[in-house]
């Protein structure tokens, strides 16, 4: 049950923690053939790979005159050369060459950020590098597991990243925003359970003996040609700080044991979402839809990716409009309903992370 104290603590959007892992790119976007420019947590970064494939993330501003290093070139196996005066930097951010002089100023360096390849993504730690433990990367193992198949895309969302987190933690909006694909009346009628710990929140909802919405009816027919009838539908939303939400979704023939753990008469997918702040009003939204059936079918992979692309496009329109309304009403406070419980616990976790860094939480 939502209380007045919880409503008051969630009235504002929060800035982003820095001591955390964020996805900066799909792994195939960072190469040794060129330099990728991306802004993460208000910090411009220049990304590339060394000749052996190791990812590198440097501040996108030369020590000398702040020229954008992302507009430079790669030299040798691992050096990034400034496009303005030719200073060169190694993966640690140390300058190794200056034009027209033999001695390199020992203070010449740019920040180098911890970076890791995992789950088909490149992850970066924009905060204190001494705290960057790869074991803290959120679990997204379905992305590269041989037991799952799927693909995804990136949305450049014109809104604060917490609005995307709110959207994903409360899926009752599907009934209204996505009525032609995955929405149905039972979403707001069904109860849900919310649990949480220091770094995660889980919201579980079951809808039993219902008609499948168009998206799920098609998927049932992909696996069970000719299927018709009632289904049991589930949504199990798991958030891991600071911005990853993996949603276990699916339907199974009603009464065949899915709520008790037997999903053999159904179709199961994971909506993999990880959201990275770009600025206070924009974010990078990386998503994929992974399934555990008909793994050999590229047709199904493409159809699912395109279908989810359309669904998320509807979300994108709403989120941008919401951000514009926040900008136009800077004194308005958010009010919360029972359906917002999961999102409010997410904000509590982010608020604690900000406090631990000694940074102001509210925008």
UniProtKB/TrEMBL annotation:
One of its GO terms (molecular function) is oxidoreductase activity, acting on paired donors, with incorporation or reduction of molecular oxygen. Coiled coil: none annotated. SUPFAM superfamilies: Bet v1-like, ISP domain. Pfam families: Rieske, VanA_C. It comes from the Bacteria. Gene3D superfamilies: Naphthalene 1,2-dioxygenase Alpha Subunit, Chain A, domain 1, Rieske [2Fe-2S] iron-sulphur domain. CDD domains: RHO_alpha_C_DMO-like. Signal peptide: none annotated. Residues 21-124 form the Rieske domain. Keywords: 2Fe-2S, Iron, Iron-sulfur, Metal-binding, Oxidoreductase. The keyword DNA damage does not apply. PANTHER family: 3-KETOSTEROID-9-ALPHA-MONOOXYGENASE, OXYGENASE COMPONENT, IRON-SULFUR DOMAIN CONTAINING PROTEIN. This is Rieske (2Fe-2S) protein. The lineage of its organism: Bacteria, Bacillati, Actinomycetota, Actinomycetes, Propionibacteriales.
